[in-house]
């Protein structure tokens, strides 16, 4: 059986909030290392890869592989009943029909308990090859969101160019064009403000802003975001959480002229 | 004009 206790419900609330507009029905695949999810959006352009490591829970118990088939709209309805600071416990049997969720207020004066009906989801998993990306950019997640939102107002697509001079986000729309160039920032006192660019070769790729703006809903999970880019392969946008857990988004590029 | 690719082009079935 699965028993997983989170000190603060907000971790799961934020994760589900960040992905529910991209994927609807998906399996939480549980085993002794944690809870994983891999799901593509309907258009097969974007992929969500979530890993909530056992270390992010206290305690975490899951002695065999359990697939928890969830509708994220339904899960959201239940999670809305949890306060951010509540202690959240997930429980499920080995071949579960339902997921049991309890929310305890931190001063223990209220315990809410819900059972959510599960679905049988036959999910198609993709093998994601290990890639040595040509460019890895680490930046404040709020900055990335601002860039994507600002450019979305002008165009459907953004071209991300990483070179030795920095990283440039450029768009071309009906009303005109615009670009934002970022250079390395080293803020010793506030490391989360850093912009780090690791580059092995220059890259230039175009992506749909609609999906990038959607990924930015994960902003609350982490103060920094990492973009991994190589020519002609999907972009990886990564939000890291405590305990080695992460939320990753992959986005297929736009190609050709 | 560039066209949108899908992930199946890059990521295989495991």
Key features?
heterodimer; A: 257 residues; mainly beta; nine-stranded antiparallel beta sheet; 14% helix; globular; B: 14 residues
Helix and strand topology:
The complex is a heterodimer of chains A (257) and B (14).
Chain A: E1 2-6, H1 10-19, E2 25-31, E3 34-40, E4 46-53, E5 60-62, E6 66-71, H2 72-79, E7 87-92, E8 98-104, E9 111-117, E10 135-140, H3 141-152, E11 157-163, E12 166-173, E13 176-182, E14 196-199, E15 203-208, H4 209-215, E16 224-229, E17 235-240, E18 246-251, E19 254-255
Helix pairs in contact in A: 1-2, 3-4
Chain B: E1 3-4
In short:
The complex is a heterodimer of chains A (257) and B (14). By secondary structure, chain A is mainly β.
Model description:
The complex is a heterodimer of chains A (257) and B (14). Chain A has a 9-stranded antiparallel β-sheet with strand order 6-2-3-4-18-17-16-10-14. A 5-stranded antiparallel β-sheet of chain A has the order 5-1-7-8-9, with helices on one face. Chain A has helices at 10-19, 72-79, 141-152, 209-215; strands spanning 2-6, 25-31, 34-40, 46-53, 60-62, 66-71, 87-92, 98-104, 111-117, 135-140, 157-163, 166-173, 176-182, 196-199, 203-208, 224-229, 235-240, 246-251, 254-255. With 257 residues, chain A is mainly beta. Chain B is mainly β and 14 residues long. Chain B starts with a strand and ends in a 10-residue tail after the last strand. Classes of the chains: A mainly beta (257), B mainly beta (14). Chains A and B meet through strand 19 of A and strand 1 of B. Strand 19 of chain A pairs antiparallel with strand 1 (3-4) of chain B.
Question: How far apart are the first and last residues' alpha carbons of chain B, in Å?
Answer: 33 Å
**Helix fraction bin of chain B:** under 10%
Strand order, sheet with most strands of chain A:
6-2-3-4-18-17-16-10-14
The chain-level structural class of chain A is mainly beta
Identify the biggest protein-protein contact and residues per side: A-B, 24 and 14 residues
Report the count of strand segments of chain A. 19
Order of helices and strands of chain B: E
Q: How many helical elements of chain B?
A: 0
> What is the typical, i.e. mean, pLDDT of chain A?
95
Basic shape of chain A: globular
Oligomeric category: heterodimer
* Poorly predicted regions of chain B: none
The coarse silhouette of chain B is rod-shaped
Task: Catalogue the unreliable spans of chain A.
Answer: none
What proportion strand of chain A? 35-45%
Termini Cα gap of chain A: 52 Å
Largest sheet of chain B: none
How many β-strand stretches of chain B?
1
């Amino acid at each position: 059986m699965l028993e997983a206790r989170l000190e603060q419900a907000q971790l799961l609330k934020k994760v589900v909030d960040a992905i529910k507009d991209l994927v609807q029905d998906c399996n939480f695949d549980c085993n002794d290392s944690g809870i994983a999810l891999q799901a593509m959006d309907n258009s097969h352009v974007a992929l969500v890869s979530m890993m909530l490591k056992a270390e992010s829970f206290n305690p975490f118990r899951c002695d065999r592989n359990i697939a928890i088939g969830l509708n994220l709209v339904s899960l959201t309805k239940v999670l809305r009943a949890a306060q951010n600071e509540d202690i959240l416990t997930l429980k499920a049997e080995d071949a579960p029909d339902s997921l049991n969720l309890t929310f305890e207020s931190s001063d223990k004066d209220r315990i809410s308990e819900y059972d959510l009906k599960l679905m049988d989801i036959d999910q198609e998993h993709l093998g994601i090859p290990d890639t040595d990306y040509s460019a890895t950019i680490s930046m404040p997640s709020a900055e990335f969101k601002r860039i994507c939102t600002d450019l979305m107002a002008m165009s459907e697509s953004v071209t991300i160019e990483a070179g030795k001079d920095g990283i440039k986000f450029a768009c071309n729309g009906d009303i005109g064009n615009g670009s934002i160039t970022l250079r390395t920032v080293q803020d010793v006192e506030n490391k989360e403000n850093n912009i780090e660019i690791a580059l092995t070769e220059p890259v230039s790729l175009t992506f749909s802003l609609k999906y990038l703006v959607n990924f930015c809903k994960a902003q609350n999970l982490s103060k920094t975001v990492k973009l991994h880019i190589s020519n002609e392969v999907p972009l990886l946008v990564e939000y890291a959480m405590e305990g080695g857990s992460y939320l990753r988004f992959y986005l297929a590029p736009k190609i050709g002229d | 004009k560039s066209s949108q690719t899908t992930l199946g082009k890059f990521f295989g079935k495991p």
